[in-house]
Each structure stands twice: as structure tokens, then as C-alpha cells.
Design brief:
7-stranded mixed beta sheet, 41% helix, disordered C terminus, Aspartate Aminotransferase, domain 1, 13 helices, 444 residues, Aspartate Aminotransferase, domain 2, alpha/beta, globular, Arc Repressor Mutant, subunit A
Length: 444
Amino acid sequence: MIQLPQIDVQSDQPVYRQLYAGLKSSILAGQLGDGDRLPPTRDLAIQLGLNRATVSAAYALLEEDGLMSGQVGRGSFVQNKANPDAEISFATSRPSGELFPLDEFRDTAQEVLARHALQILQLGSPFGYGPLRSYLIEEAIAEGNFDPEQDDLLITSGCQQALDLIQKALIPRGSLVLAEEPVYPGLKNAFPGALTVDAGAAGIEAMLVTPSFQNPTGYTMNLAERESLVSGRKLLIEVDIYSRLRYFGSALPTVRSLGVRNSLLLRSFSKIAFPGLRVGWVIGNKAMVQRLATAKQWTDLHSDQLSQAIMLEFARTGRLERHLAKVLEAGRLRLTATLDSLAKVLPVGSSYTRPEGGMNLWVTLPRGCDSAVVLEKARREGVNYLPGRYFSLSAPFHESFRLSFAGLSPSSIAEGLRRLAPLFEEEALIASRYHDPVPALAMV
């Protein structure tokens, strides 16, 4: 029978975290063994006199840590982290659920429903929830991203919907969009057959860039590179969803704030708060935003107003800034752990980007290696990542892969890369035997 952890309702630590910590301690101490069945959330809540949601939140943290697995129809079971079969996934670019401030989120939702339920449960404007639009516009004006005389703002269901609306409303059929390579797969889905890396191609209608911590490479444009985009005549689509996740160094201005006005600035709460709420927005001149709003009305009338109202209250009360401070500290630790481990485990001839923030970096193994081949072996060791081919427009990127670190604890990052180390070495050895060497330059 499970030994129930002690809960102190007077403690400053949230109850769900106390429960999580107690269960985690029992698992790591061996008091709960691998495969042991945990009580259903309802039963444990009754035994402890807690809300069922509190138990569910604690279980969610255990699952995030790889200490528990939920099986539909069967229940929740201990999965000891020391088990080499526990998967460590570098494949998904998302924040860590362990960092979600569930109690603060719950309080925010209750406050919103208590004050604004009738308003937000009615149909709304395709432009978005009015109070949130006003908040975001004021913030954008202060940053130099918004001209009240010329610009407007549209709230979308995340950045991905914004891209889809742009493709539908602003990119003529048969036109091309110039993009960075390697490219985020979501862009290929939003602009099917329309992306190109050839700046000289005919029919280019727009340029799409992610200046800060680009996905998948983590690359950040310097100020000179940003300034070089200001004078461009094509529509500039600026994806700015990672810039607030800066762990080291100084912040850089958006391209839009440097003076370019033939542009659309895309932002989102998904990477800095709760990706499941799907709250993003687009800033552009009034005519373009009106066309996007019309396309959105055809698509889904408007984005979910409860999510918008919750995000507004979460930001306006200062909870977002407090949460972001914790996210940044955790991100620093995770990025440092990733860079430290990569320096130890990669074979000679490898390279990797060294971002100062974001969620991803780009690893390139020695010439002739195939990251997709290594992945098949890695999965047998309980590790997952995305090979370079997923991010290709023209180059194959056989040797490369994306490493997404933000959703993993530092210890999981170190363990995952430790498991990968012998696989990388083996692949590099095979490549050195069967790949033609680069010919030496003639000494003339």
C-alpha cells in the first residue's frame, strides 16, 4: 500500500508540488518500485482530502519527469527514471510542463470567470478580445512596433494560424516566399510548395525570417543583419515568438521597430506561458490586417475568448512576468547543460550552434554521417530527436539534427546525450571508413 506523503496546507509551497515532491521522493528511494500502480486521482484525492485537480497536477509533473506513465483504461504506473528504457525526447520544441504555475493559472481562470463570464462566452470580434488587443497594442507602441495611425493588431489561434491566414489572404497563388534554411516544418505546412531559398527566383512575393533564436538552429541575427532587411521591398514576415526566451546576452530590436513598415510581426504566448491556450497575434498595416481578419472570420469566426481573457489577466496581474523569470532561469540551466554535454559526447569533426536563448540548437555530425540512421538506434536506447531531413527545402542535411532542450530537466539532457554518445562515435567511425575523404588542395 502506498505511504501517503505529508501535506502542509500552511506551507508557501503549492499543495500539488508538495504531493509531487513526496511521491517523487518515494519513487527515487525505491519505496515505490518500477511498475507499481499509483492510486487513481479520485481515490488519492479522497484519502488526502484534496481536490482531484491537485492530484492530477502532481501526477502530470511525475510524468514530465519520466517517473510515471499513464495508460488509458489501466491507470498510472511508476516508471523509475533510472530505467534505461525511459524515453528522453529532444524532438519537441515546447516549454516544460513542470514549470507551469498551475495554482496561479487556476486562480486567474476563476477571477476571469467571476468577472467576465457573460462577455467572453458570447460571440466576439474576429480581431480578437478587445481588452487583450488594447493591452497588446499599448505594449507594441512602447516597443516601437506599432504606429497607431497606420497599424492594427489581429489575435490568432497561435502563430501557426497566423501563417496560414497570411498564406490565404496575402500571398497570390503561384507566388513564392523566400525562407531561411534549415526551415521550421510548420512553415512548409503553411506555405505548401511556395517556399524557396533562392533569392533570385522569379515570383517572390514575401520574405519570412525568425531573427531571434530561429527554429531549428537557434541562430540570432545581429543588428547589422536586421538593419539590412529594413530597405527590402518585399513583404517581410517576421516571426518573433522566441525573443523573450533570452538567457544570456542583450536583447535586440525587432526588424519592424527599426523602421520597416511593409511587414507583419507575429508573436505568441505559447513559448513563454501555456502553449495549449493557443493565443498569438499579428501586427501590420491596417489594410493587411483587415484582409487577415476577413480570412479568419471565414475560418473560425474568432479565437477562443476564454483563453484570451485568461492570458490578459495573467499578464496584467504580473503573474506572467513572475512565471517568465522562472522560465528564464530554468532555460539557462537547460541550455548550459546541453552545451556542456555536447562538448563531451560528440565525435571529432562535429559542430553545433551555441544560441543565447530559445528552445533549440542544431548539431552537425562529421561528414558522411546520417542522423536518421543514428535515430533508429537511438530509439532503442530510449532517446528521440528530429533528423535534419525534416527541416530541408533544398539541402539534405543528412549529418544534422535538431536538439530541443527546453522541455527536459538538466539531468535528463545529460542522460540523453550520454546514451547518444557511443552511437555518434559508431556512426562517425563507419563514415570515416566508407566516405571518400575530402581531396587535399594542390600545393601550387
